From TrEMBL:
<dbReference type="InterPro" id="IPR005311">
    <property type="entry name" value="PBP_dimer"/>
</dbReference>
<keyword id="KW-0472">Membrane</keyword>
<comment type="similarity">
    <text>Belongs to the transpeptidase family.</text>
</comment>
<dbReference type="Pfam" id="PF00905">
    <property type="entry name" value="Transpeptidase"/>
</dbReference>
<dbReference type="GO" id="GO:0009252">
    <property type="term" value="P:peptidoglycan biosynthetic process"/>
</dbReference>
<dbReference type="GO" id="GO:0009002">
    <property type="term" value="F:serine-type D-Ala-D-Ala carboxypeptidase activity"/>
</dbReference>
<dbReference type="Pfam" id="PF03717">
    <property type="entry name" value="PBP_dimer"/>
</dbReference>
<keyword id="KW-0133">Cell shape</keyword>
<keyword id="KW-0812">Transmembrane</keyword>
<dbReference type="InterPro" id="IPR001460">
    <property type="entry name" value="PCN-bd_Tpept"/>
</dbReference>
<keyword id="KW-0573">Peptidoglycan synthesis</keyword>
<dbReference type="GO" id="GO:0071972">
    <property type="term" value="F:peptidoglycan L,D-transpeptidase activity"/>
</dbReference>
<dbReference type="GO" id="GO:0071555">
    <property type="term" value="P:cell wall organization"/>
</dbReference>
<dbReference type="GO" id="GO:0008658">
    <property type="term" value="F:penicillin binding"/>
</dbReference>
<feature type="domain" description="Penicillin-binding protein dimerisation">
    <location>
        <begin position="43"/>
        <end position="282"/>
    </location>
</feature>
<dbReference type="GO" id="GO:0005886">
    <property type="term" value="C:plasma membrane"/>
</dbReference>
<keyword id="KW-1133">Transmembrane helix</keyword>
């Protein structure tokens, strides 16, 4: 009976095995051989930036890099073992290793001890699903003694730093372990030991290269490192657009604003894996393409010259004048008044180095549109045109310039006793304050009597500001860079403040607003949107050439002045008189490019980096100009906040403005000469042939 029962059982087992092999064998075989396709996107270098003449401003520098790819079936213990091997042949920065990282490492190295940190009762909560694993893990971390993690050697700390980087990546996506300062010895050592370092590879990475150093650095912006990856605040937005957590993205200004253009098309690789997670094969779906290139409106050579002029003039003023202690910045903008293309966007700032205590000159181009100041008489062109438009004054109208007394307050022009009976053109030429005061008093419906109180309609503030905004003063210019500010309008509506508004000593304006304002006057009344990006182009392999144009940024008129053409021409004429004998910018007299200009000096208060001196009375200096007067091809705005204390100081605004325009036209002449020489050489060669 026993033999029969055993025989029967074996017969049933054989029949069952036969059924599985014969009937269901193919199904099980297919299941075992079933693979999974996992697509991984690999980042590519960012697009480059060129100046308007095709010179590279921002490039990508190749770097030797060591990467780690975590496979689906790789355990934490295996990763730690690889990290420890790698720590013996490369050096890494360990400054960012925290106690938490050390505890994670201890947990992997000591699994039994880690398990014993949780009581049986607590494990029962986990088994009953009352607690999740995260709670258990956090309890384990809290119960690890300091003595357990304080004995690690330098080699251990290196291994922890490497493991941390290895563990931060996605499965099958290469994660950078080290890409800076990888020595040839390290690169070779890792390459020779790849068989003993599963998942580790040597490759080429990139970093941003700024060809002109710090020039324009603040408006070019920054790119996150591979360690930083995606910014936390925008993580979901980027993840939804096929970014990985450790992808590098633009963090500020052009790098940020044109992220979609510069980021490029990722290389895509399909990894075929079996059920265990082993990679069976890789298939490249797309090679990827580096980001598209930006061509800027900036002339890099001109930009360098402008920056040098600003630096030299600031240092010279500091050296020669003892009342310039609070002056720490200066700005100069050159713009094409007909297209809004910015040829130079220069800003410099003196900053005291924390380590050396010495003043250093740093790029502050972003300050041209993110900071605002009282700019003084430079805005008087807008005041005159507002007077024409409202009917408060008519072209050529004479007005007596003499000190004004309103109640007990005396206000007048910069010359003691005033300028006498002058018209609008002379008022611009000599920068009369009184002419502007009486103009806005009329706009406000006021009646001035010497020594008597003055009553005005507060609505005049809105009238003047609305008119000024048509020139770009007190509103966003629309520049294609983030974080543009509008400036600050004053809140009081008393007569004296209206008079200050008329001469640029009440509301604050940004340097880029001044550039747009003078451009609007120069081109005959069109407020053009300023921009620093000229074109977007396809990337090509030849680093010295530009690819085909994808998009060209067209000039954009934001609004046109609702004013007569002859009014604008009259203000242009007044600006031209400013540069002649007797004008406040007579240092331009005789310039071959025949400019027009308006200077500005504003009594203001210091609100810079030294908070202890906030509220100190200072003088702000400014200058707007365009040239040539009869056919403007360039407009400039110069602003030097907190230039000096007291009644007199350096004419740094005029020095910068004159030298900048000289540099522009000298460079233009030089290039035309070089072009002519090349043309002559070409003609000679053709003749010889």
């Amino acid at each position: 009976m026993l033999f029969f029962v055993v025989f029967l059982l074996f017969s049933i087992l054989i029949l069952r095995l036969g059924e599985i092999q014969i009937v269901f064998g193919d199904d099980f075989k297919r299941e075992i051989q079933r693979t999974e396709d996992i697509t991984v996107s690999n980042p590519v270098p960012r697009g480059k930036m060129f100046d308007r003449n095709g010179n590279v401003i921002v490039d990508n520098t190749p770097l030797n890099a060591i990467t780690y790819t975590k496979y689906q079936n790789t355990s934490q213990t295996e990763m730690v073992e690889t990290a420890e091997k790698l720590a013996k042949i490369i050096n890494v920065d360990t400054k960012k290793v925290r106690d938490r990282d050390k505890k994670d490492y201890w947990m992997i190295k000591n699994p039994d001890e880690a398990k014993n940190l949780i009581t049986k009762k607590e494990w029962s909560y986990y088994d009953d699903k009352k607690w999740d694993y995260k709670k258990i893990y956090n309890l384990q971390l809290d119960r690890i003694k300091e003595s357990e993690i304080n004995h690690y050697s330098k080699e251990d700390i290196k291994a922890i730093a490497i493991f941390k980087k290895m563990n931060s990546g996605y499965a099958l996506a290469p994660q950078i372990v080290k890409n800076k300062d990888v020595s040839p010895k390290e690169f070779a050592a890792v390459s020779e030991n790849l068989e003993n370092l599963p998942g580790v590879d040597t490759t080429t990475d990139w970093e941003r290269k700024y060809v002109f150093g710090d020039t324009l650095k603040t408006i070019i912006g920054n790119v996150s490192s591979s360690e930083e990856g995606l910014p936390k605040d925008d993580l979901e937005k980027y993840m939804a657009r096929d970014y990985s957590r450790n992808d590098r993205v633009g963090k500020s200004y052009l790098e940020f604003k044109y992220e979609d253009v510069l980021h490029g098309q990722k290389a895509k690789v399909i990894n075929k894996t079996d059920k265990a997670g082993n990679v069976l094969a890789q298939e490249v779906v797309s090679e990827g393409q580096r980001g598209k290139d930006l061509v800027l409106t900036i002339d890099a050579e001109l930009q360098k010259k402008v920056e040098k002029i600003i630096e030299e003039e600031m240092w010279d003023a500091k050296r020669r004048f003892g009342n310039t202690g609070l002056m720490d910045r200066a700005f100069a903008i050159l713009i094409d008044p007909h297209t809004g293309e910015i040829l130079s966007l220069a800003g410099k700032q003196l900053v005291r180095d924390n380590d050396t205590g010495k003043l250093e000159m740093r790029d502050y181009a972003q300050g041209t549109f993110t900071t605002s100041y009282n700019v003084g008489s430079a805005v008087k062109g807008a005041t005159i045109l507002t007077g024409y438009k409202t009917g408060a004054i008519y072209p050529g109208e004479p007005i007596m310039d003499a000190p004004m007394k309103i109640g007990q307050t005396v206000k007048g022009s910069w010359r003691a006793g005033g300028f006498g009976l002058i018209n609008d053109l002379t008022a611009l030429k000599v920068s009369s304050n009184v002419y502007m005061f009486k103009t806005v008093i009329r706009i406000a419906g006021g009646h001035y009597v010497y020594g008597q109180p003055l009553s005005i309609n507060p609505a005049a503030f809105n009238t003047v500001r609305k008119s000024f905004s048509q020139f770009g003063l007190g509103v966003r210019t629309g520049i294609d860079l983030p974080n543009e500010m509008t400036g600050f309008p004053g809140s009081e509506t008393i007569p004296g403040k209206l008079m200050d508004l008329a001469i640029g000593q009440y509301d604050t304006y940004t340097p880029i607003q001044l550039a747009q304002y003078v451009s609007t006057i120069a081109n005959g009344g069109n407020r053009m949107q300023p921009h620093v990006v000229k074109e977007i182009r396809e990337p090509i392999m030849d680093n010295n050439k530009l690819g085909p144009v994808i998009e060209e940024i067209q000039p954009k008129v934001l609004n046109t002045l609702d004013m007569k053409e002859e009014w604008i021409k009259r203000v242009q004429q007044g600006f031209h008189m400013v540069t002649q004998t007797g004008g406040t910018a007579s240092y331009f007299k005789g310039a071959s490019y025949d400019p027009a200009a308006k200077t500005g000096t504003a009594q203001a208060f210091y609100y810079g980096s030294d908070r202890s001196k906030w509220g100190t009375p200072v003088m702000n200096l400014s200058l707007v100009s365009f040239a040539p007067y009869n056919n403007p091809e360039v407009a400039i705005a110069v602003v030097v906040p907190w230039a000096y204390q007291g009644n007199t100081g350096p004419s740094i605004n005029g020095n910068i403005g004159k030298k900048v325009l000289d540099a522009y036209f000298d460079l233009k002449k030089e290039r035309q000469s070089d072009k002519g020489k090349k043309g002559d050489e070409q003609n000679t060669n053709n003749t010889n042939q």
